[in-house]
UniProtKB/TrEMBL annotation:
Its cofactor is FAD. This is Putative monooxygenase. Residues 2-329 form the FAD-binding domain. InterPro entries: FAD-bd, FAD/NAD-bd_sf, RIFMO-like. It comes from the Bacteria.
Length: 489
């Protein structure tokens, strides 16, 4: 029996597998596909995702293959990313097929077992674990099962978890194709009275072409090159000589979210937990960030370091994040209409986005840099992600998180006294002499704390502005950090 069975070897499932394996958990990933996806799918990684890869020491291969793009958008209205408070103030253009390959390589290096041609068809859970039935009639068993199996998740359905939301109001067609007569440069969401279209150059020799029209088009049958050509001619007035498709697909603005992310020993992450219009490329990124929140918590429960009620905090923290993504993508769809009233609204919004505060708020939302968890405590940094500050010993803060252990970052001249029964369970880092101020999303430039307790996912669980003050530290430790074994004598 595996400790954790994961259904789905997409980015979310692979990232979760890496997190669990790093914590010493035995993982089995089940994937219905016989091999890695050959479809390009999502197109990039946002700053927050790059940060979480960095905090596990995994980011360099992604940076080496991707292309930084310092501009984002909100419903096609440009957002400036270059001044975001992060080491990665850009969108890293990198197709999902490459992201999956790089994550699979990391998972393999960590010993994660991936079983392909293994389609989940049913599940049954009891007090000790979950039995998973496969399409070939076989079964596997794990102490926990995590559904990372997409918007049509069998795991979600068989666990009896609801998936309420809203139906599509538009349909977009997408083709990765070659062009005989490409435009002079990239065209992004060029708007006409009939809809909008994009022609984007990705890797050498081929382009991503997308068209969008309001009103749901017929959904029966596969998307064909002729259907994409007809849509492009109708909206753009020409087809740019498209030919030789690599991948053709359609998508809409259906928006749904699981009403709970946990049902006993079954949990959901990624598209199995939330689907939405792919405005701003937030889906893949939100799923990877789900995995970062969930992995260390499951590991702590399996080790006996925490009661399994710790897993309830996964829903409490990530469900609101998913709901906000659904809301902001719905807003972007509403802002994308083609009538005169919407055009007037877009003009007003474009003017507002020129204001730095509005730009930064929307950019923080789309990149998820502004995500804060309700962890309690009176210090304004509690619940926010630790900035990747430079430390006096030459390291960066995110390097401290590579082992996925809690960190007590001690910035004062007088070290914090750590209870003896917790000392072996955290990395106590003395870092007096770091910068006196930190740049933090939403908050701006703020005084550095005297000390901060950082969870394995990089979020600050406790902080104090006063040297030597440990008020609330014991409560934070008892919530998020196991008790270490204390030698006798």
């Amino acid at each position: 029996m595996a400790d954790v069975v994961i259904a789905g070897a997409g980015p979310t499932g692979l990232m979760l597998g890496c997190e669990l394996a790093l914590a010493g958990v035995e993982v089995l990933i089940l994937e219905r596909r016989t091999g890695p996806t050959g479809e390009s799918r999502a197109g990039g990684l946002h700053a927050r995702t790059l940060e979480v890869l960095d905090q596990r020491g995994m980011v360099e291969p992604f940076l080496a293959e991707g292309r930084p793009l310092s501009a984002g958008h909100f419903s096609g209205l440009p957002l400036r990313l270059h001044d975001l408070p992060t080491r990665y103030p850009y969108l890293l253009v990198l197709l999902q097929s490459h992201v999956e390959r790089l994550l699979a390589e990391q998972a393999s290096a960590l010993g994660v077992a991936i079983r392909r041609d293994a389609e989940v068809t049913d599940l049954r859970q009891d007090t000790d674990g979950v039995t998973v039935t496969l399409a070939d009639g076989g079964t596997v068993r794990g102490r926990y099962l995590v559904g990372c199996d997409g918007g049509r998740s069998v795991v979600r359905h068989r666990a009896g978890i609801g998936y309420p939301g809203t139906d599509a109001t538009l349909t977009s067609l997408l083709g990765d194709v070659e062009l005989a007569d490409p435009p002079a440069g990239n065209v992004f969401q060029q708007r006409t009275a009939r809809g909008d279209y994009s022609v984007l150059g990705f890797e050498a020799g081929w382009y991503r072409v997308m068209t969008t029209r309001t009103g749901v088009l017929p959904q029966d049958g596969p998307v064909t090159l002729d259907r994409l050509r007809s849509s492009l001619i109708e909206i753009a007035g020409r087809d740019f000589g498209l030919h030789s498709p690599r991948w053709l697909s359609r998508y809409g603005d259906t928006a749904r979210q699981a009403d709970r992310y946990r049902q006993g020993r079954v949990l959901l992450a990624g598209d199995a937990a939330h689907i939405h219009y792919p405005a701003g490329g937030q889906g893949l990124n939100t799923g990877v960030q789900d995995a970062i929140n969930l992995g260390w918590k499951i590991a702590a429960v399996l080790r006996g370091d925490a009661d399994d009620t710790l897993l309830d905090t996964y829903h409490d923290e990530r469900h609101p994040v998913g709901a906000r993504v659904l809301d902001n993508t719905r807003a972007q769809v509403a802002l994308g209409g083609y009538d005169a009233q919407t055009e007037a609204l877009r003009s007003t919004m474009a003017g507002l986005i020129e204001q730095p505060a509005v730009n930064d708020q929307l950019a923080g939302m789309v990149t998820a840099l502004d995500v804060t968890y309700p962890l309690g405590g009176g210090h304004p940094l509690v619940g926010r992600r630790l900035p990747d500050i430079d430390l006096p010993d030459g390291r960066r803060a995110y390097q401290l998180l590579h082992p996925a252990r809690p960190v007590l970052l001690d910035l004062g001249a007088t070290p914090v006294a750590v209870p003896r029964d917790r000392a072996g369970a955290i990395d106590h880092v003395l870092a007096h002499g770091t910068a006196a101020t930190w740049r933090v999303p939403v908050l701006g430039t703020v005084p550095a704390p005297a000390a901060a307790l950082v969870r394995p996912d990089g979020h600050i669980a406790w902080a104090t502005a006063v040297e030597g003050d440990t008020t609330g530290l014991d409560t934070a430790l008892s919530t998020w950090v196991r008790r270490a074994r204390v030698p006798a004598g």
